[in-house]
Design brief:
- This protein is an alpha/beta fold and about 475 residues long.
- The protein has one domain: Trimethylamine methyltransferase-like (TIM Barrel, Alpha-Beta Barrel), CATH 3.20.20.
- Helix content is about 45%, strand content about 10%.
- The chain contains 18 helices and 20 strands.
- It has helices at about 15-30, 35-45, 60-65, 115-125, 150-160, 175-185, 190-195, 210-225, 245-265, 290-305, 325-340, 360-380, 390-395, 395-400, 405-415, 430-435, 445-455, 465-480; strands at about 30-35, 50, 55, 75, 80-85, 90-95, 100-105, 110, 135, 165, 195-200, 210, 225-230, 235, 270, 275-280, 310-315, 345, 350, 355-360.
- Strands 9-10-11-13-15 form a 5-stranded parallel beta sheet. Strands 2-3-1-12 form a 4-stranded mixed beta sheet. It has a 4-stranded mixed beta sheet with strand order 8-7-20-19.
- A hairpin with a 4-residue loop joins β19 and β20.
Length: about 475
């Protein structure tokens, strides 16, 4: 029996209520910009007043609709097996999405990504146990721009069995992406029953839902595909400088997204998420590894949990340009805090440089961090009393407890062990002499070697050949 699940919180229930109350007041009195015609019609049918594209959503409508979204979202892999339950304090990790650069695995140089990089990144994540989902991790330029959204989903489905966190940058892409997903599931009904993907949708701060992102919300809702709100208020730039003000704006933007999805379809699955940041006044940057950014994410997630919704945040990433000590402490601190908050989907492992770059080495290192976070949340276990007395009573005779029956039966439960890959492990706990005899490598060097090995391995679960052919056919038809 676990004695206690460790937890961190920054807001009391009193302040959660105050933040939500003010967020609803902002929506009803200051309004929110809605560019999408279909969403405008849905709001007008409810009698929501507007001034051109600005809509003033009343509190009673929000209070009515916020009871509809499910409190639990399950994700299933390509074979239809449940692999994630987004509810309560369950945590899951996936790499961040849509980086435009890759850190070359051979040279270490930062460059624009190609589809081959995306395939290799997908292969690596497929084999790393602590990532429950893939993401459309990289934007690559060697396919037509009109195909980039759906093509990334296509390659993810081909090269990994894990569910995919994705999204659209063009409204035309959604129908192709839905076709790929429905083909994998064999029907629209089965896709809705066993979600294979999450679609990110990002409002534009402050207080605006663009035509494209709103259409994504509506299309996903009608298809039963979970939408993940990725609100991105920038404290001191596109949001109030105060952390609590930034959290309040985030709540207002997400509540507007909730209204749109539930008007499109009652009980549509949504995830209360985001990628906020504080604005660095010295350098003019958006530091995702700043402790204040992490604090905003924690508070945002608490608001989502207060509403009974699955939660998401961009954490466990770094602003460093290489997988160095800064990348380690920013990713490690972010992952631990996200885990202690109980954020259901934690995006960001692998990412560097303000979400712009993916790193093969970092995604391997961050998998190790994620495993340690899961162990932390497992807590301390009560195996029955007395806790130590009986074990210690044998000490005089045995001189060592290494061979004690309790040690032999429980050490694998009590200790976290990562699996060696290609003879390498990221974390080194050997003696100095053992470490020197194997080349005195750093964690980054070992992660690089692991990444190279994983790029060459076959999928953990090979794709059915008939499904592969059908996905290839859809891709070919839409490229021609």
């Amino acid at each position: 029996m676990t004695i206690f699940r460790p937890k961190v919180e920054l807001l009391t229930d009193e302040y959660k209520k105050k933040i939500l109350s003010e967020a609803m007041d902002i929506l009803s009195t200051q309004g929110i910009m809605i560019e999408n015609k279909e969403a405008q019609t849905l709001l007008q049918e409810q009698g929501v007043s507007n001034n051109e594209s600005k809509y003033y959503i009343p509190e009673d409508l929000i209070n009515k609709l916020k009871t509809y979204p499910p409190s639990e979202i399950k994700l299933f892999d390509r074979q239809g097996k449940e692999v994630a339950n987004l509810s309560k304090d369950n945590i899951h990790f996936d790499p961040g999405s849509a980086a435009i650069f890759i850190q070359d695995l051979t040279t270490g140089n930062i460059r624009e990504a190609l589809s081959e990089d995306y395939i290799n990144f997908t292969k690596i994540v497929d084999h790393l146990d602590n990532y429950v989902a893939q993401s459309t991790s990289l934007v690559y330029s060697n396919v037509p721009s009109s195909a980039q959204d759906w093509h990334r989903l296509y390659l993810a489905l081909l090269h990994s069995s894990k569910p995919v966190v994705t999204g659209t940058f063009t409204s035309e892409s959604f129908s192709v992406m839905r076709q790929l997903l429905e083909t994998t599931r064999t029907s629209a009904e089965k896709l809705a029953a066993k979600p294979l993907a999450i679609f990110d949708a990002c409002p534009s701060p402050p207080l605006m839902w663009s035509d494209l992102t709103t259409q994504s919300l509506i299309d996903a809702a009608k298809s039963g595909i979970p939408s993940e709100f990725v609100s991105m208020p920038l404290a001191g730039s596109t949001a109030p400088i105060t952390l609590i003000g930034c959290v309040t704006q985030h709540a207002a933007e997400c509540l507007a997204g909730l209204v749109i999805t539930q008007l499109a379809k009652r009980n549509a699955p949504i995830i209360w998420g985001g990628s906020p940041a504080v604005f660095d006044m010295k350098h003019g940057t958006t530091p995702m590894g700043a402790i204040e950014t992490m604090m905003i994410n924690i508070a945002d997630s608490q608001i989502g949990k207060y509403l009974g919704l699955p939660t998401h945040a961009y954490m466990a990433l770094s602003d460093s340009k290489v997988p160095d000590a800064q990348a380690g402490y920013e990713a490690g601190m972010g992952a631990v805090l996200a885990g202690l908050t109980g954020i259901n989907m934690i995006s960001g492992p692998g990412m560097l440089d303000f979400e712009s770059t993916q790193s093969f080495e970092k995604v391997v290192i961050d998998n190790e961090i994620a495993g340690m976070v899961h162990r932390l949340l497992g807590g301390i276990t009560d195996y029955g009393e007395p806790f130590a007395k009986d074990i210690l009573s044998d000490y005089d005779e045995r001189l060592s407890l290494l061979s004690h029956s309790s040690t032999l039966s429980l050490f694998r439960k009590e200790l976290y062990f990562s699996k060696p890959i290609g003879g390498q492990q990221v974390t080194n706990r050997e003696t100095r002499d053992q470490w020197k005899s194997k080349g005195s490598s750093s964690a980054r060097q070992r992660a690089k070697e692991i990444a190279k090995v994983l790029c060459q391995k076959p999928q953990r679960i090979e794709i059915d050949n008939n499904l592969k052919n059908e996905l290839d056919r859809i891709a070919l038809n839409n490229l021609s």
